C-alpha cells in the first residue's frame, strides 16, 4: 500500500469457538448470562452479545473445515489462547468464578493474588476453552461493562 492511502481500520468483531456439542454449549453460555442473538440460526451457529466482540459457537469439525485445518487430533493441552472476563473488584472475581462453576464450568485455577498486583483465577467451558476472570491494574471495567485501558 502507498503511504498516502490509509489502511483499513483494525477491529476484533467476533471470537468463534469450536464446540463438540453446540446444544450444551449454547445452554452453558446462556446460563452464564450472555444474551443470544440471531436465534433464527438454530443450532447451526450461535451468536452471543458480550458487550464487546461477539462470541460465536460453531461445531468444532465444521469450524476446522472452514479454516482449512485438520479436525483431529483435537488438542487436550493448552491451545495458546485464553478468553478473559475482566471484573471491577476482587469480590467480583470470586463471584464470577463461583457462578461459572455453578453453571458447569471446570475450575482450572482458584482466584489468587498475581505478581503484577491483580487478582485472577481460571475456569474452562465444556470444551476446555480457558477463561481468565481477573481484576488488573490499569484495566477498568466501566458502568457500560466495557473494558477501559489506561493510556
Description:
The chain is α+β, with helices and mostly antiparallel strands and 151 residues long. The chain folds into two domains: 1-69, 2,3-Dihydroxybiphenyl 1,2-Dioxygenase, domain 1, CATH 3.10.180.10; 81-151, 2,3-Dihydroxybiphenyl 1,2-Dioxygenase, domain 1, CATH 3.10.180. Helix content is 20%, strand content 32%. It contains three helices and ten strands, in the order βαβββαβαβββββ. The chain has helices spanning 22-31, 60-66, 90-102, and strands at 14-19, 35-37, 46-49, 54-59, 83-86, 106-113, 119-124, 130-135, 139-141, 147-149. It has a four-stranded mixed sheet. A four-stranded mixed sheet has the order 5-8-7-6, covered by helices on one side. It has a two-stranded antiparallel ribbon with strand order 9-10. β3 (46-49) and β4 form a beta hairpin. The longest helix has 13 residues, at 90-102. The protein is globular, with a radius of gyration of 17 Å. 17% of the residues are buried. Residues 11-136 form the VOC domain. It comes from Bradyrhizobium cosmicum.
List its traits.
globular; Glyas_Fos-R_dOase_dom; 2,3-Dihydroxybiphenyl 1,2-Dioxygenase, domain 1; four-stranded mixed β-sheet; Glyas_Bleomycin-R_OHBP_Dase; 2 domains; 20% helix; 3 helices; 151 residues; alpha+beta
Topology:
Elements: E1 14-19, H1 22-31, E2 35-37, E3 46-49, E4 54-59, H2 60-66, E5 83-86, H3 90-102, E6 106-113, E7 119-124, E8 130-135, E9 139-141, E10 147-149
Parallel strand pairs: 1-4, 5-8
Antiparallel strand pairs: 2-3, 3-4, 6-7, 7-8, 9-10
